[in-house]
What we know:
The protein has 274 residues and is largely without helices or strands. The chain has helices at residues 41-46, 113-116, 229-232, 236-250, 255-266, and strands spanning 4-6, 28-30, 52-54, 75-77, 98-100, 122-124, 145-147, 168-170, 193-195, 216-218.
Amino acid sequence: xxxxxxxxxxxxxxLPITSNLNLSIIRVLDxxxxxxxxxxxxxxxxxxxMVVLDVHSNQLKTLPNSIGCLSKLKTLxxxxxxxxxxxxxxxxxxxLEDLNANFNQLTTLPDTIGFELINLKKLSVNxxxxxxxxxxxxxxxDLRHLDVRLNRLRSLPDDLENLINLEILNISQNFHYLxxxxxxxxxxxxxxxxxxxxxxxxxxxxxxxxxxxxxxxxVEGNPLVSPPPEVVEQGVQAIKKYMSEKMTxxxxxxxxxxxxxxxxxxxxxxxxxx
Length: 274
């Protein structure tokens, strides 16, 4: 039984797959590094047991709607193409754990992606043209790794606290587009690595003082005022200490900040007495 089919780097313009082939036995299909401009609808519809699909480094402008038939698909690599959007049917790929769409022309992600792709553990969409992430992104509770660097993000979703398993977040190099970070950043209880370098951020949210597991923080290339440069150069622990002290010292006067203190206590990330 031929479960793995490797047609990579063969200078293919079209796929040499005939109608009498039993495609349902294929579990891994690698058609990367070719010159493919389309994946036929009829092909995707017959790959019912596909677990890994690698089509990176082709000339694809769209994905077939029938990709939604791939209910067992766990890994999808479409990086290095010319995709401007995903078909809405991709939300039917509910087994998907790793989605790599780096180096495309994406301007949006499906609005309800976070409600449907609930098993997603890694989402890489760097080097695209994304202006925002759908609010549903914050419902990807299994997500471990989110890479959205080199886009045009203006903001992040407000309610990030649902991303309880997120360990690595890279939002660097959105340059002058990204100027603020949501207060809910401090509720990412599993966060270990955070890269916000090369944006236009002037102040880190005070809540970042509550990121207990944070070990690696990159903030260079921002016009930061809070924390000041002398704190930043001391490293991640000094930054966390500064933000924590700023939060406990200043939250009394702000009802909004008081509500966040309550949330932080609820999530067990903040021990301050206020």
